[in-house]
Design a protein that fits this description.
8-stranded mixed beta sheet; TIM Barrel; Beta_hexosaminidase_sua/sub (chain A); alpha/beta; 8-stranded parallel beta sheet; homodimer; 19 helices; 2 domains; EC 3.2.1.52 (chain A); about 15% strand; beta-N-acetylhexosaminidase activity (chain A); Chitobiase, domain 2
Chain lengths: ~550, ~550
């Protein structure tokens, strides 16, 4: 394995030190910003218009021009990566969207003509914990500086992708000069994520999302440096996924056109990987599974009492095994979500053959719930998957769960502290702040929600893998999903990426709001239907005419 | 000029006649459809799932497979057209979005392996009235048929684009076979638009739309065969457009980032042209122009009374001339919209120097309004533009308007009848049914609105160029604009394209609803955020979980 630490930083260290002396670092600055409502706040040079905020950065006071024919020099063991090359093309299209005024025949010399990307490792495997760190330098080649280009150095291709995103946010089209400019150069950025799991869930059962729309969501996630799409594929309402071993299951789809083939799912995974985003699939058992019985009614306790899945039949677990075995070929991510939430066991009690089965084994329905979840965990483990389960499983039988289990919080605050105290890993998704379908949660409540709240011990803190904002789709479909996800998912994304200190002090609120407004407009510029930030309720139209940067 | 009539129709006429005999044409069928709410209505073979409905069509009962490696054979004088080639690639990407199951090494023979496009004319000029007719045949090469391919024949490249859109709607991915299928083949379609002007207006002053978003809107317009984007660029609130002759004008933009360069506007026009869509620009004078004075305060009667534009200064008309001369280089469309609506002349009365000027010229403020509009018309005419004006100009001084003027209706019904009776051409946009910001208008009121209502005389009917749905942006921005435009713009698009008889009878309501739901889901599949059809108010989220095809 190559060194985890980018070497460029050390090569250039004496130089960087001199930059740091010249320009005070704005990180953790304690000065309070005055409240000014005018749109001119974006001319305030104290705002760092990057989202999420990098871990460390310094900047200067130069303005540099960027060549629309920016050349790329790839080096390092990972220098041949197609993932990086494709990403450079995507970002070039984003950065140079507007035609430059200067005719190519003129003798204009741009300050930044070259982008060097150094990738240490040629390992393109994407997994949780892959090294996403990078350093980025943007400087001019003149008598004061040895840097004459933009340089990204990273240990993995995925770190390089994060660096490209940051670079693209530094490059701003200037309508006056008709040129892409980098302000406040030279920039030196040394960045890495605070949490390794930065997720967004998407529920394709309450409404079906066409693959183009899922791709739009994934693409926009990469702009905020989120890295896990938790795909809640199936639920009570519909079963859209093709399962080759049980081909009648997707009879539970809403219609013959609201389905995902195996190839569709593979394409989603591949599209996400190109953007450094993992896809964690979920099969939520034994509740939230009514749609399974459309194809195989035997999975229902009875035709009139359809949920949870029939615990008494071997067929039920055969089907789960068949589904998971098929999905294992699609989803390489090491986690697999088994659900386990909101299990109402009434049907087990009221259906004679199920009740009898439980009695024969001396089980209560609660025992049955535990039995079912653990059996599903075994299936996932046997496929070399780490199980993730919603918190009810932990709340109900914590000592029985497989110790590898990742507990997924949702019901409220305080669950991750309990889970990590018992040695479990945890994902924070407190519904009061991180459920995107809760439209009454303003951006700042999402932003200041802290996954480590109530956890003091450093070794316990390390068990919190990160967090996830959840996009349940009862009232979201293709028409409004991006509007519901953004901008609040970005608020969570900065919480999960950036340093806790830099994003937690009360005096950050105004600058965070202004930066988030800017990022929302950046999403809009990239064609993403992110909603206004200041609205009291999420997903509402703008209240009147006005600038994107003020709404 | 080549013949206006596709020759293929005649070559194949004996064959087509036999199809018509075998399969009853569904046009104007008088049978009533039973009301069934189930999603299975889409299996009802009586529904023709094309939007807008073609002028003439017949179909059969074969199901044909389509080769993902569909080849293109272009011929005719327009056979070298880059517009057609690019469109073919776009539609191929849309049609073959899902991976086909069949490995390319296998020897499966697809029924449709070739698409022939015959374009008679090599004239790529896009204008109002360009020939958009086409014929489309999709048939299998077997003992019953001489056709073994899909064939589009058109007089112009723009007719070929319309034919490609129709073909793409016939090609449906079958999730079971994992192949693109054409059902109910053979198809013979002979199609042309009912009206030559089928517009959507977009207001980029109340909110700024990034160019990517305008492109998304244009792309989606092409799916519904709309052909005019009426770009309401400037209004009171902001002046986003660069005007080289008066470079301070776009100081009236909301911010330095909410602007369109000349190159941006050119790119919009070019992008639209590739999709057969004209761009009609608007400069709304003398009202709705307050933002002009941000850069040139002399254009205001006074700093405290800022609208309408100062009629008393030559500078005002110099600026209008300068703006229009610059825009003439961007917008080749023969119409130019001069606004003229909602002119409140109080400022002219209350500003001493303006009042004095009016008195010196023996004008009332109403005379001043007429003087201003006519002077703006002269400027447009001198640039070889046909002026379009909002109906207030016609309502106030019909006998003074230049006879070339196109009257743009908006205030209510009954205006086009009056305008065409006086020999003016007219565009129908009755706000009660075709203003998309009126969220309380359900799809069917938009759909059954008839531009020719109240006009009996055929020569007067010909003066109605068509109609336009208007997307005013007080509460629309990037986050919700597509959701507000669709699906109701599609309802108007069918009204404007398809035969009046086929779309007007009361018994069409259920089939139109079902077809519109299908088209809305098609938009969703193509990544367009079209809203549910059945909601009582437009732009509302779905009421609960469910199939796209039922909401």
């Amino acid at each position: 394995m190559p060194s985890k630490r980018p070497t460029l930083f050390f090569l250039l260290f004496p130089f960087l030190l001199s930059i740091s002396r010249s320009f005070p670092t704005p990180v953790n600055s304690s000065r309070t910003l005055s409240l000014h409502k005018s749109k001119l706040h974006f001319d305030d040079q104290s705002l760092t218009l990057l989202w999420p905020l990098p871990a460390q950065y310094t900047f200067g006071n130069q303005t540099l021009t960027v060549d629309p024919n920016l050349s790329l020099v790839l080096s390092g063991n990972g220098g041949a990566s197609g993932i990086v090359k494709e990403a450079v093309q995507r970002y070039k299209d984003l950065i140079f969207k507007h035609s430059s005024k200067v005719p190519s025949t003129s003798g204009v010399v741009y300050d930044i003509q070259k982008l060097s990307i150094i990738v240490q490792s040629d390992n393109e495997e994407l997994q949780l914990g892959v090294d996403e760190s990078y350093s980025l330098l943007v400087g001019k080649n003149d008598e004061h500086s040895i840097i004459g280009e933009a340089t990204i150095e990273a240990n993995s291709v995925y770190g390089a992708l994060r660096g490209l995103e940051t670079l693209s946010q530094l490059c701003v089209f200037d309508y006056g000069a008709k040129t892409v400019l980098v302000s406040k150069a030279p920039w030196f950025i040394q960045d890495k994520p605070r949490f390794e799991y930065r997720g967004l869930s998407l529920d394709t059962s309450r409404h079906y999302y066409p693959i183009d729309v899922i791709k739009q969501v994934i693409e926009s996630m990469s702009y905020a440096k989120l890295n896990v799409l938790h795909w809640h594929i199936i639920d009570e309402e519909s079963f859209p996924l093709e399962v080759p071993r049980y081909p009648k299951l997707w009879k539970g789809a809403y219609s013959k056109w609201e389905r995902y083939t195996v190839e569709d799912a593979q394409e989603i995974v591949s599209y996400a990987k190109m953007r450094g985003i993992n896809v964690m699939a979920e099969v939520d058992v034994p509740g939230h599974a009514e749609s399974w019985g459309k194809g195989y009614p035997d999975l229902w306790p009875s035709p009139s009492c359809r949920e949870p899945l029939d615990i008494s039949k071997n067929f039920t677990f055969d089907v789960i095994s068949g589904i998971l075995a098929g999905m294992r070929e699609i989803f390489p991510f090491k986690f697999f979500h088994l659900g386990g939430d909101e299990v109402n066991t009434d049907c087990w009690n009221s259906t004679p053959h199920v009740k009898q089965w439980l009695q024969d084994r001396n089980m209560t329905v609660k025992d049955g719930y535990q039995y079912f979840v653990l059996k599903a965990q075994e299936i996932a483990l046997s496929l070399n998957w780490t199980p993730v389960n919603w918190e009810e499983t932990f709340n109900t039988f914590p000592s029985k769960l497989n110790p590898q289990t990742v507990v997924h919080n949702w019901l409220g605050p305080g669950v991750c502290p309990k889970a990590v105290a018992k040695g479990f890993r945890c994902i924070f998704s407190n519904q009061g702040v991180w459920y995107l379908d809760h439209l009454d949660v303003p951006w700042n409540e999402t932003y200041y929600a802290e996954p480590l709240e109530g956890i003091k011990d450093a070794s316990e803190q390390r068990l919190v893998l990160g967090g996830e904002v959840c996009m349940w789709s009862e009232t979201a479909d293709t028409s409004d999903v991006q509007q519901t996800i953004w901008p609040r998912a970005a608020a969570a994304a900065e919480r999960l990426w950036s340093d806790r200190e830099a994003t937690s002090a009360p005096d950050t609120k105004l600058s965070a709001l202004n930066r988030l407004e800017y990022f929302r407009c950046l999403l809009n510029r990239r064609g993403v239907a992110a909603a206004p930030v200041r609205n009291q309720y999420a997903r509402r139209p703008p209240i009147g005419a006005g600038s994107c940067y003020d709404q």
